[in-house]
């Protein structure tokens, strides 16, 4: 870039490079996420001072990382020199001779005001950056953190979002988000979470947490739980970007590719999910011509990759438990919709089968509810209503507004609009998103009108 780079341009470049820089520095700092972020910010200060005058370097990420390295080494030297001086003062106070500071670890001693840093410390910066990013993802999503903390820390360190951006995305106070991130970093430090990619059973358990956080971020963008907008495309885009990064870093994990495929398929419908007035548009009412074919193509490719890995794993270990996981199954479900040019072309029988398989894997009442929806189109609403009533009776989803909207739709289709209206109203009362609540209330009014017409 020319030497007239603006502050905004420098900050834009920094935002792109921030996760990689933090990842490298975190490993070199022994997994100290707070220090790594601080060093990265210090490097940004230098960039803001130099780049507008000298131009953006050809490889800005390498420049920022190199500056961060130097600042880390300087910090170590300063801390070790200070520790050595304190030690010397302590010896003087006790009547010692005041000899030169010892010290261990990464420091070999004080020489002419400088601290000798062991070569292995400097070499710690030279491993592959991509491995560091994978480590950072696993650390940020460690199960020792509560889910809100995982989400905030992942968006900050792995996604590169600022605290105000995270606060806006989740309708939180900036101070709350900032405190959540600080506490998360302290919790990781107190738990001595190693800066590494876990292996074996630990990796399988941690991978689930990583995928869960990414999908939570995506779902908040795809169907916002609160606020006036039903969708938040910027959150969907960030989650999909994180998923693609993880897929590149963990190419042999089928569930990673399954999640990416699922997000690609869902993203293909984002434009069609909101009407010109901002009102939600449900699946059956969407103009499928506006679905993004590029996202669908990417989704099919990711799903094929995931299923190929599942088959290969099963062949390599016939006695093992290789099977399609929840994200691969959900991607297969989304693919069924993406392949249908009209709602009536949907293979509902296959969807019932996929939901049944998914229910066996997850034992989730939400999955059972979705299975009932598919069953209602495969075999009719009368076949599905008893299953929905069982979920209602169980009380497991009593605060879940979509349970009542599904039941309302089934009752409407069965010609029982008065009962349906009550269910629509129940759903509207539980909906946290204003746009969705308006839609549900309009459905309730329509059902009430049909009930009145039927009585006349």
Average predicted confidence as pLDDT: 84
Q: What is the first-to-last residue Cα distance?
A: 74 Å
Assess the beta-strand content as a share of residues: under 5%
| Topology pattern, helix = H, strand = E | HHHEEHHHHHHHHHHHHHHHH
Computed CA radius of gyration, to the nearest angstrom:
27 Å
Order of strands across the main sheet: 1-2
Number of strands: 2
Q: Percent helix among the residues?
A: 55-70%
- What structural category characterises the helix and strand content? mainly alpha
Shape verdict: elongated
Could you provide a short overview of the structure?
The protein is built from 19 helices and 2 strands.
Q: Helix and strand layout, with pairings?
A:
Elements: H1 7-28, H2 33-54, H3 60-93, E1 107-111, E2 114-117, H4 119-123, H5 129-140, H6 147-158, H7 163-169, H8 174-190, H9 200-222, H10 233-249, H11 254-267, H12 293-316, H13 326-338, H14 348-362, H15 365-379, H16 381-394, H17 401-413, H18 417-430, H19 434-455
Antiparallel strand pairs: 1-2
Helix pairs in contact: 1-2, 1-3, 1-5, 2-3, 5-6, 6-8, 6-9, 7-8, 9-10, 9-11, 10-11, 11-12, 11-13, 12-13, 13-14, 14-15, 15-16, 16-17, 17-18, 18-19
Structure description:
The protein has 456 residues and is mainly α. Helices cover 69% and strands 2% of the residues. The chain has helices at 7-28, 33-54, 60-93, 119-123, 129-140, 147-158, 163-169, 174-190, 200-222, 233-249, 254-267, 293-316, 326-338, 348-362, 365-379, 381-394, 401-413, 417-430, 434-455; strands at residues 107-111, 114-117. It has a two-stranded antiparallel ribbon. β1 and β2 form a beta hairpin. The longest helix has 34 residues, at 60-93. The N and C termini lie far apart (74 Å). 39% of the residues are buried. Residues 1-5 and 96-128 have low confidence and may be disordered.
